[in-house]
Write a structure and sequence with these properties.
Elements (H helix, E strand, L loop, with lengths): L1 H31 L8 H16 L8 H8 L7 H16 L7 H19 L3 H20 L2 H6 L10 H20 L16 H6 L1 H26 L4 H18 L11 H9 L3 H20 L7 H18 L5 H17 L2 H11 L5 H17 L4 H6 L1
Helix pairs in contact: 1-5, 1-6, 1-8, 2-4, 2-11, 3-5, 4-5, 5-6, 6-8, 10-13, 10-14, 10-15, 10-17, 11-13, 12-14, 13-14, 14-15, 15-16, 15-17, 16-17
Length: about 400
Amino acid sequence: MRPPAIALLWGALAGGAAALVYTAMNAAQHVIWPDDIARWYIPLIVLAGGGLIALLRPHTDDGSLDDQLTAAADPRRLRRERTAALALSAIIAYGFGGAIGPEAGLIAVIAELSALVGVRITHSEQEARLIGQSGSAAALAGLYGSPPGAAAYDDDTLAPGKLLTLLAAGAGFLTFLVVHRAFGTDHTDLGIPTYTHSNGQLLAAIVPALAGAALGLLYTRLHAWTTALLTRVGSATRQTLIGSAALAALAAAFPVALFSGHDQLHKVHDLVADSAWLMLATAALVKVAATAITLSSGWRGGEFFPLLFAGAAAGALATAAIPNLDLATAEIAGLAAATTVGLKKPAAAVLICALLIGQAAWGPLIIGATIGLFAIRGGTTNPDHTAAT
């Protein structure tokens, strides 16, 4: 009974710890970005954040969120000093307005805690890995509100061997929710309109799904291009400073470039209500461009929430071409396709989106993910290869 007990107890503790970190990150973000800020304030704050990240970057390990999850899964071999620097850097990136989610900061903090706990209570390398995997799954489950999505995130599967990871994710989700509500905050509410099932609507959902998939493909190419471009300018510190300057300029011109996007979906609904289609298209394009620049510049975080926002905006654009298309159907199909393409994880994307949106909207979700999967297989650009060349 020892492995299930470890997964359950550490998952619960990690979920609670992740909730505390996430609450602190949001509080810091609200302090740094008060309401009704002047336009000139935006580039100053982004540049300040970029400067701090540039100072920390030589002390962190570069890599994607997937690389971070792989490292966190083996806490005995974790480079703890670099992980601590990464945690601070990721928290700064989120607080200072980067177009990224808080995943990197949460996982880094929990990885540090997993390393501290692992050396004291584990009897084998297998148990140590269980501690690491349980902590990461619990943190993501709380953030995404989806234990199965968090358990599937690392390799896009829910194989029978992941039963303990799923147990940890479920426990982490529950404690995350309890701690979050103890601070008077509810879980993420995307505010997507109520979905109503209709066979005709499902056929029409192909159009917004195609728009979301196209935006996801655009993001992967922009990310590869900005990474390759910044690599040519020299040191990692210089890359961060130059990339941060580009992000500051983009955010000054288009404030929607800031932040992860999961609290900004109301802007999509407002633009649809005003028939401001050009502004809606601009918001979607700006968000994916800002996310590509943010990550390429060494600002650490997750790309799921920005892709979700951009995909929902792209999907909503389809309602201009198909007047009878339900807005909820369009947004859900678009965000499912965009996140599937951007993450390259169809199962994880569907499982996260399904529970995060809080509605039984499997039709547009499956359509969006299916078209996203075809887009991945039909794409010819390998972002990692492009960046390397």
